[in-house]
Every structure is written in structure tokens, then in C-alpha cells.
Automatic annotation (TrEMBL):
It comes from Pygoscelis adeliae. This is Anaphase-promoting complex subunit 4. Residues 537-707 form the Anaphase-promoting complex subunit 4 C-terminal half WD40 domain. InterPro entries: APC4, Apc4-like_WD40_dom, APC4_C, APC4_long_dom, WD40/YVTN_repeat-like_dom_sf, WD40_repeat_dom_sf. GO terms for biological process: anaphase-promoting complex-dependent catabolic process; cell division; protein K11-linked ubiquitination. Residues 1-74 form the Anaphase-promoting complex subunit 4-like WD40 domain. One of its GO terms (cellular component) is anaphase-promoting complex.
Length: 725
């Protein structure tokens, strides 16, 4: 994906294909405020939301089908309820502490959460006004994502692969153009669907509720991502060096030829101050005094980083998650407003419980880190002195002091951590599990190697003996055998399930109002790559009309047709369909005599609500015939005298079979056109707000940018940018 500035074609950034996101981009869409670009990748079936300033993925998610078209719209409906919601400060900002930024020194941290200002998250959430990213894919796949992040509808019942779609800004109607291929037929049929009342009663009548619910969902999505990244940072802070102790001891067991256990060898060293020759060789030759020091420092720095991440990031992230889920539960209990949207309180209750279990597991990890740090410190201090004595080095007097309490502490540590576990060898290829923290961070479904010892814990005993508390919904379930990763995965699964239901409920409420078969794609057309564009859909926000632009081949001329339908499907707009003929407007340019010049339309695009931009070529294609860029005002097509010539649609036939009966309107363009010299123009893309058009050549190598509303006398030379092959 390459992003250029329009004014001087300076490249802003480029995002090369990579393994994680994917390699084949099939669709792009800008968020209505222009701050975020979404693109769909077909090989990985992922959607990536990217910041306009720098090429970073702010958010990405997977979909079930490869995406062929994307459309990002903004709701323009106004109502007092909505306005008060838009203007109200988000309470969570007042009640929740700001999420601490993730440390920058880890490779995986997405920059979004590591900036000091977590406005990055706000940038991703964008304006409170509801906007929706509509995705269309192969085999009738259509989904609507609120704020581009959270799925609020899965639309079913549309056949074929999506070539274009458009959701009206009042959410009342969804228009889709699909391509239906019969296996036997080499030519595909292009069909227009209009889903009426995207059950108007649902999305549009419950707009304030949908907006609120979607806003909560997006908060929850970003928090889940934050927790996931915090956990990834923790895994990076835990280093492989911490495994050295286990692997060295395992090797020692395999090589030694005495019958005493490792635990006894260390105990003898502790009690008599004398080590067997084998243990001496292990300590002095393999571990070494220097190595022991390094290991001690690594363990301390690594554990304290993990501890910080748990306290400041994991816990604050999960508490914020708990807050938003509890708010969502409150919404779900307000049945008259939210029940019909599919919010389900019992599902959210399960999600809250799952977050509770995750918080418990994070606390357990903190206790394990705490005790491990204490134990390792005492053990290493004692072992350091013992090794200095073996090497007959001078031992500083302050290191030499060892109280009875310290000795007991080390003895307990040896008893607990240095016992051999042969069954561990089959599982992990080692006999020891001295290091207890890593097992919590492993992304495996296995149970913990050494779960915490809960014997003698008064609370556990109390729970065991109490019949009422065992099943109490107020207690979070605790999974003593499972790792933190496992509990997190489980929590994500439960939250996803509880937030999935509204999408199904809203999607099922969409009914098809009209389905028209437009035309067959001709073989010749398919040989040129169908890049984008025609058929093209446009939604006129002020008068709530959907327009469809497409071309039908008549006598080897591609004639442009305009179909218009009201978004409120009960109302019909007169002159639902019109064909447009371009009169001979180049008459003074090439030679005077030929009146019968005809133009084929190559591409067309709505410039604004009143104008269509078209690329034309002369049908009598001779050398030196130039392509033309023209502006076609709708006012010159939809005139009052057409009212009586209503086209009667025969629904049993395709539109191209009835093209003879469609009213044709001949338009003579006065001065709103320009010959495109030395360029085989094929495609056009426009932006009426910025008053520019970009024309792309048929070999997709040349782009020209035109300013559309420039007075003739001071005409600005257009920029021309050539890409080399």
C-alpha cells in the first residue's frame, strides 16, 4: 500500500507486504474523517486499520471470507438523544485511571499503546458519531463493523461475489452489486440487490442504542488488545537464561555416577560445607562464579520487569475491562432498549466472571514472582560464598554472616525446588523445575508443571467445607492448574461469544426489498483487468437516493446507464433508469464533417451529488483518437419533460435484454471536458470535496491528477506522475 500526497505526489509512506498481515490487498476504504485507512487482504483474510501519518497497523482482525469491496460511511442522522451522547464526556475517562503506556523497549509493542499520550487509542476510536465499515466479499459475505472495529451485523441472503456496496447515511437501506457466476457459464451476471429497511426498525430506530453499544464494544476491543500486548511484553521480559539452572542440573543428573540425589548433594554442601567432586565440577567448571553472578542479576531484573508489567498494565487493563463489561451488563438489563439488539445479560455475566478469573491468575503470578525472588536471592547468596570458598578466594566478612534463619530458608528452598521429577523429563526434557515463573507465560494448553501449593490455605479449606459457597456466582472460578495464557485465551473466547450475538440478531433483521439482474459481463471486457469502479454506487445524503452507474454494450458502444432508487424502498423515484448518449462535442477539434461520432464510456464516478465524472473514448477507435475526461451534470439528464416516459421493468429478463426500451437522453457537453493527450486513460477516481480527479492509464502505470474547478485563464498545468515498470 502506497500513500502519496495529492498536491505534489510526494510519498508519505509505503507498507510492504509482510507475513503477519498478508500480501494481496484487494480493497481499500478511508474512514470518513480521513485519519485512518482500512485495507483488506485476501490471502490472510485480514482487515488492517492503518494510521494516515505513519504506516502502522493500529488494529486488525480476521474475517471469514476474502474481501472484494469495502465502504466506510458516517451516520448523518441528528437527534437530541444522540447530540447529548456525542457531547457528553465519556464517563470512563473520569472514573478510570489512564492506561499506562507500554514500555517501548520491546519489539512487539504496537506503537499505539507505547506512545506517552494514549491519544493513539482515542485516534483509533475517533469521533463519537457512529461510522460503519461495510465489508463485502466472495459468496455473499457482507458484514458491518461499527467504528471499523466491532462487528454489529452479519448480513445473509445475498448471492454472488460483491462488486460494490453502499449503506445509506440514515442506515435505512443497503445497496449491493454482486457478480454471480454459473459454473457452466463463462460469463458472469451482474445483479443489483437492495436490502430494504436494514430492518429500519433496528439499526435506524435504535440508533442511539446502537451507537452506545458499539462504542462500548470498541473500548472492550482495544482493552483486549492492550492486555494481549502487555502479556507479550511479559514473555519478552522473561529470558531464556532463566532456564539455565534447570538444564545444567538435568545434565548433571545424566552424567553423574553416584547414587545420591541432587537435593542431597546440595544439602551436604549446606550442612558440612563440603561438596562431592561431581558437584564441585558442575559448580566451578559449568556454572562458574561469574556465571552465577550473571544468572542472579538476570533473574532479578527479569522478574522485577514482569512484576511491574503485571501490576501497572495487566491489572489496570483488566480492571478497565471489568468496568466496561459491567456497564454493558447494565445496558443489557435495560430490556426495552437493548434486548431487541441482542444484548444478553447472562452472556455478559459469564464474560465478567472470566475477567475475574484472569485477575486472580495474574495475582497468583505476582505471589509466585515474589516468593521466587526471595528464595533465589538467599540461595544464590549462599551458593556464591560456598563457591568462593571452593576456589579458595577471599570471602568478605559481610557475606559470611549467615543466621540460622537463612540456613532454614535455603534448606526449605532445596527441599521444595530441587527434587527430581522423572515424569517431567518426558514432558519437557528436564528433571527440574526450579524456575517457576516461565510456565505461566508459555502459550501452551498444558497444565502448569508445578502449580502453587494450596495445602493449609485457610480460605481454600473454608471453601471446600462450605456447601453454599461452592456454587456461588459471586466467586470467580479459579484454575490452579492452568497458565496465565490459557486463562487469557479462555477470557477472550467468552467475551467474543457474548459480543457476537448482536451481530447475528441485527443481521437476521435485514430483508431484501428488490433484486434486479442488470447485465452479463462480456468476455472482451473481462480480458482487461476489472480493476475497480463500474458498476459504481453512490448515496445522495440530502435526498436519500442510491444511484448505480453501469455500462451496457449496445452495437459495440458501452453506453452509460444510471439507475436510481430511493433508500426508503416504499417510495419509487420516477425515471428509475436512464441511458445517456454523448453528442458530438469534439466537432471543431479533429475534422468538421464527421457528425456521427459516438463515445463509449470507460469509467464513471460520482464527483458530488450533482455531477458524474466520466472517461470516454471514441468508438471508431483509430490511431491518434484521444480519450476524454468530462463532467456530466445530472440536471442535464433528469429534466421535467421526462416524467411521462416511465420505464416499465420486466423482472423476468435481464436489463441488457430490454435496453431498447430504456429512455435515452442525449447530452451535449459544453465546456466541461478535456482531451487527455498521450494517455490511454481507463479509470477515474475523484474527490468532489477537494475538487480533484485522478486518471489512471489502462496499463496501470501512469497517473494524472486534475484540478477540476480552475478558471481557464489561469489554468494550472496538471501534475503528471509516471511510475516506471
Amino acid at each position: 500500500v502506497l500513500l502519496h500526497r495529492l498536491a505534489n505526489f510526494q510519498r508519505v509512506w509505503s507498507l510492504p507486504p509482510n507475513e503477519n498481515t498478508g500480501k494481496e490487498v484487494t480493497a481499500l476504504a478511508w474512514r470518513p474523517d480521513g485519519k485512518i485507512l482500512a485495507f483488506g487482504l485476501t490471502d490472510t483474510k485480514r482487515i488492517v486499520l492503518c494510521d494516515v501519518e505513519k504506516p502502522e497497523s493500529l488494529h486488525s482482525f480476521s474475517v471469514d471470507s476474502s474481501i472484494t469491496y469495502m465502504h466506510w460511511m458516517e451516520v448523518t442522522e441528528e437527534s437530541s438523544v444522540l447530540t447529548s451522547f456525542y457531547n457528553a464526556e465519556d464517563e470512563s475517562n473520569l472514573l478510570l485511571p489512564k492506561l499506562p503506556a507500554l514500555p517501548k523497549n520491546y519489539s512487539t509493542t504496537a506503537k499505539i499503546f507505547s506512545e506517552e499520550k494514549s491519544d493513539e487509542i482515542m485516534k483509533l476510536l475517533g469521533d463519537v458519531r457512529l461510522n460503519a465499515l461495510v465489508l463485502g466479499g466472495s459468496s455473499g459475505f457482507i458484514e458491518i463493523y461499527a467504528y471499523g472495529m466491532f462487528k454489529i451485523a452479519t448480513v445473509t441472503g445475498v448471492a454472488g461475489s460483491c462488486r460494490g456496496l453502499c449503506l445509506s447515511s440514515d442506515l435505512k437501506s443497503l445497496s449491493v452489486i454482486t457478480e454471480i457466476r454459473d459454473s457452466s457459464d463463462s460469463e458472469a451476471e451482474i445483479t443489483y440487490f437492495q436490502a430494504s429497511k436494514l430492518d429500519t426498525s433496528l439499526l435506524s430506530s435504535y440508533l442511539p442504542e446502537v451507537t452506545r453499544m458499539a462504542r462500548k464494544f470498541t473500548h472492550i476491543s482495544t482493552l483486549l488488545q492492550y492486555i494481549k500486548l502487555s502479556l507479550t511484553c511479559m514473555c519478552e521480559a522473561w529470558e531464556e537464561i532463566l532456564m539455565q539452572m534447570d538444564s545444567r542440573l538435568t545434565k548433571f543428573v545424566q552424567e553423574k555416577n553416584t547414587t545420591t540425589s541432587v537435593q542431597d548433594e546440595f544439602m551436604q554442601l549446606l550442612l558440612w560445607g563440603k561438596a562431592s567432586l561431581e558437584l564441585q565440577a558442575l559448580l566451578m567448571n559449568q556454572l562458574t562464579v561469574k556465571g552465577l553472578k550473571k544468572l542472579g542479576q538476570s533473574i532479578e531484573s527479569s522478574y522485577s520487569s514482569i512484576q511491574k508489567l503485571v501490576i501497572s498494565h495487566l491489572q489496570s487493563g483488566s480492571e478497565a475491562l471489568l468496568y466496561h463489561l459491567s456497564e454493558l451488563k447494565g445496558m443489557a438489563l435495560w430490556k426495552q432498549k437493548y434486548e431487541s439488539l441482542g444484548l444478553d445479560a447472562s452472556g455478559i455475566e459469564e464474560a465478567i466472571t472470566a475477567v475475574g478469573s484472569f485477575i486472580l491468575k495474574a495475582n497468583e503470578l505476582l505471589q509466585v514472582i515474589d516468593s521466587s525472588m526471595k528464595n533465589f536471592k538467599a540461595f544464590f547468596r549462599w551458593l556464591y560464598v560456598a563457591m568462593l570458598r571452593m576456589s579458595e578466594d577471599h570471602v568478605l566478612p559481610e557475606l559470611n554472616k549467615m543466621t540460622q534463619k537463612d540456613i532454614t530458608f535455603v534448606a526449605d528452598f532445596l527441599t521444595e525446588h530441587f527434587n527430581e521429577a522423572p515424569e517431567l523429563y518426558n514432558r519437557k526434557g528436564k528433571y527440574f523445575n526450579v524456575e517457576r515463573v516461565g510456565q505461566y507465560l508459555k502459550d501452551e494448553d498444558d497444565d502448569l508443571v508445578s502449580p502453587p501449593n494450596t495445602e493449609g490455605n485457610q480460605w481454600f479449606n473454608f471453601l471446600k467445607n462450605s456447601t453454599h459457597l461452592k456454587e456461588s456466582p459471586l466467586l470467580f472460578p479459579y484454575y490452579p492448574e492452568k497458565s496465565l495464557h490459557f486463562v487469557k485465551k479462555q477470557m477472550e473466547g467468552v467475551i467474543d461469544r457474548c459480543l457476537q450475538k448482536p451481530a447475528d440478531v441485527i443481521g437476521k433483521s435485514v430483508h431484501q426489498a428488490v433484486c434486479m439482474s442488470l447485465y452479463k459481463t462480456s468476455q472482451s471486457e473481462d480480458s482487461t483487468p476489472q480493476l475497480f469502479k463500474l458498476p459504481f454506487l453512490w448515496n445522495d445524503k440530502t435526498s436519500n437516493i442510491h444511484y448505480v452507474l453501469f455500462t451496457i454494450l449496445e452495437n459495440s458502444i458501452s453506453k452509460i446507464h444510471i439507475l436510481r432508487r430511493h433508500t426508503d424502498t416504499s417510495r419509487s423515484v420516477s425515471n428509475g433508469i436512464l441511458a445517456v448518449d454523448f453528442g458530438n462535442f469534439l466537432n471543431n477539434s479533429i475534422n468538421e464533417s464527421s457528425d456521427s461520432r459516438c463515445y463509449s464510456c470507460l469509467d464513471a464516478h460520482f464527483y458530488d451529488d450533482e455531477t458524474v465524472t466520466v472517461v470516454l473514448k471514441e468508438s471508431a477507435e483509430q490511431e491518434g483518437k484521444e480519450r476524454v475526461l468530462a463532467q456530466l451534470p445530472l440536471s442535464s439528464i433528469y429534466t421535467d419533460e421526462d416524467q411521462d416516459r416511465e420505464f416499465i421493468w420486466d423482472s423476468t429478463k435481464r436489463l441488457d435484454e430490454q435496453s431498447g426500451e430504456i429512455c435515452t437522453c442525449t447530452v451535449v457537453l459544453e465546456n466541461q471536458w478535456r482531451v487527455l493527450e498521450n494517455m490511454k486513460a481507463q479509470y477515474v477516481s475523484v474527490n468532489g470535496i477537494r475538487k480533484v480527479s485522478c486518471v489512471l492509464s489502462s496499463n496501470l502505470r501512469h497517473v494524472r491528477v486534475f484540478e477540476m474547478d480552475v478558471e481557464d485563464d489561469g489554468e494550472v498545468e496538471e501534475e503528471e506522475e509516471e511510475e516506471t515498470t
